[in-house]
């Protein structure tokens, strides 16, 4: 569809753009604006007050240990720092960076304790990557599903930022990795003292000791002053407030990789160490609360990502999966990063069923909900990545469809 024809369609409907009145002068043009030096650190327009993180709409508990990113309100691929999802098992510790240390010990030649200044002396790198909690979208059990959920509820444990830090591989070279090292224990300095075992191959590959997020120092909630960032791996292993790395020849079998974050299979056996967040996508608009205002042109847009690499294709269906069309992918299309997709669509005002299906560079395709449930059985909780469905009613209201 050409741009001109889109504009024409919008202008012909009653609630579209008004005819221009050339002499109108808005009141904010008649007086001096707020002095700029009153804003040492800026915040969004007061008219954007509704664009906030929040816990699950219908959570059965009185308090929550996580708040979700409002994906329905965001553009492009970057999550503003104040809207990055938070999942913290014991709140946010108040850490003085001048006192924070990272101890690297175990099977190393020279155990060392690094201050933040010591780490800053290593060569730095910046990478754009998504972060997704493996519990994101873990609502495939029918009893958990609430029909009024919007995309913030279903997919909001997902964010994307530019992470800056130093390569873990460089720090490991400094301490000297002894032969036979296979795993590294990473420990956080929060009251949960969260610990996970990281495979040495990942540590030597693209692991980052991150101290900055979207150009500024990490937010306290994201692990200030230092976090482990493992691109494409489930959120939990990205240890925040990182204080210790212990090198060893076997996994450390911590609580978060035995009791939690394992996948219980149909035969009753739990699969451990499922790190990679596999190919997934979601339409962020139209979505619940963000339905089409009127029949006519309606852009379908959303996000796709894969912990295995780049997104190569996103298909969109508006008729429940009978026909699929290729969405256009917005550059940059980066490895282990959110990719924005868009498809021009004309909503005829009738019922419609929207789905998106992503493919990554390894050839993996998002499974249908039915096939994933059949394969994984009723006990599965983490790592759900099936095709997601929104239902548009004739009035334009959008609801979760399962
Ligand atoms: N020290 C520590 N690290 C942690 C956690 C925690 O509670 N403590 N939560 C983990 C979980 S479950 C997730 S999903 C991610 C969330 O990172 P975020 O809060 O920056 O989004 O951090 C992980 N790292
Ligand atoms: Mo998580």
Structure overview:
The chain has a five-stranded mixed β-sheet with strand order 4-3-12-7-8. Strands 5, 6, 9, 10 and 11 form a five-stranded antiparallel β-sheet that branches. The protein has helices at 3-11, 116-120, 151-155, 168-175, 200-204, 369-376, and strands at 66-67, 86-87, 101-106, 112-115, 124-132, 158-167, 183-188, 195-199, 208-213, 216-217, 227-229, 242-248, 263-264, 270-271, 280-285, 296-305, 311-317, 325-326, 328-329, 339-347, 352-360, 388-392, 398-400. The protein folds into three domains: 3-32, no CATH class; 101-271, Oxidoreductase, molybdopterin-binding domain (Sulfite Oxidase, Chain A, domain 2), CATH 3.90.420; 280-401, Sandwich (Immunoglobulin-like), CATH 2.60.40.650. The chain has 402 residues and is mainly beta. The longest helix is centred in the N-terminal third of the chain and has 9 residues, at 3-11. It contains six helices and 23 strands.
Specify the number of helices.
6
Total of domains? 3
In the CATH hierarchy, what is the superfamily of the largest domain?
Oxidoreductase, molybdopterin-binding domain
Unreliable runs = 1-14
Major sheet details? 5 strands, mixed
Arithmetic mean pLDDT? 92
Keywords, please?
3 domains, five-stranded mixed sheet, mainly beta, five-stranded antiparallel sheet, 23 strands, Immunoglobulin-like, 402 residues, binds ligand MTE, 6 helices, Sulfite Oxidase, Chain A, domain 2, single chain, 10% helix, 30% strand, binds molybdenum atom
């Amino acid at each position: 569809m050409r741009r001109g024809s889109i504009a024409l369609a919008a202008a012909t409907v009653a609630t579209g753009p008004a005819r221009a009145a050339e002499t109108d002068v808005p009141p904010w043009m008649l007086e001096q604006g707020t002095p700029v030096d009153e804003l040492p650190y800026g915040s969004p327009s007061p008219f954007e007050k509704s664009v906030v993180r929040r816990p699950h709409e219908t959570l059965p508990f009185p308090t929550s240990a996580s708040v979700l990113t409002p994906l329905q309100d965001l553009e492009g691929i970057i999550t503003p720092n104040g809207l990055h999802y938070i999942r913290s098992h014991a709140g946010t510790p108040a850490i003085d960076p001048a006192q924070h240390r990272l101890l690297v010990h175990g099977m190393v030649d020279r155990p060392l304790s690094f201050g933040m200044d010591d780490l800053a002396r290593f060569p730095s790198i910046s990478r754009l990557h998504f972060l997704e909690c493996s519990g994101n979208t873990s609502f495939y059990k029918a009893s958990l599903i609430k029909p009024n959920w919007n995309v913030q509820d279903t997919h909001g444990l997902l964010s994307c930022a530019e992470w800056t830090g130093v390569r873990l591989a460089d720090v490991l070279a400094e301490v000297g990795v002894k032969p036979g090292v296979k795993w590294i224990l990473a420990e956080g300095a929060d009251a949960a003292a969260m610990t996970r075992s990281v495979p040495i191959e990942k540590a030597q590959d693209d692991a980052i000791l991150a101290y900055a997020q979207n150009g500024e120092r990490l937010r306290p909630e994201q692990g200030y002053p230092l976090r482990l960032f493992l691109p494409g791996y489930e959120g939990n292993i990205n240890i925040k407030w990182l204080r210790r790395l212990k090198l060893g020849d076997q996994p450390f079998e911590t609580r978060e990789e035995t009791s939690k974050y394992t996948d219980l299979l149909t035969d009753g056996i739990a699969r451990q160490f499922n790190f990679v967040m596999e190919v997934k996508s979601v339409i962020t608009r139209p979505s619940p609360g963000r339905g089409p205002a009127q029949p006519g042109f309606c852009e379908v847009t959303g996000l796709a990502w894969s912990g295995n690499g780049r997104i190569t294709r996103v298909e969109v269906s508006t008729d429940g999966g009978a026909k699929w069309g290729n969405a256009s992918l917005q550059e940059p299309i980066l490895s282990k990063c959110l990719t924005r997709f868009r498809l021009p669509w004309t909503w005829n005002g009738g019922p419609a069923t929207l789905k998106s299906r992503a493919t990554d560079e390894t050839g993996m395709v998002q499974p249908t909900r039915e096939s994933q449930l059949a394969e994984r059985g009723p006990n599965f909780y983490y790592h759900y990545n099936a095709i997601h469905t929104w239902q548009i009613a004739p009035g334009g209201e959008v609801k979760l469809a399962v």
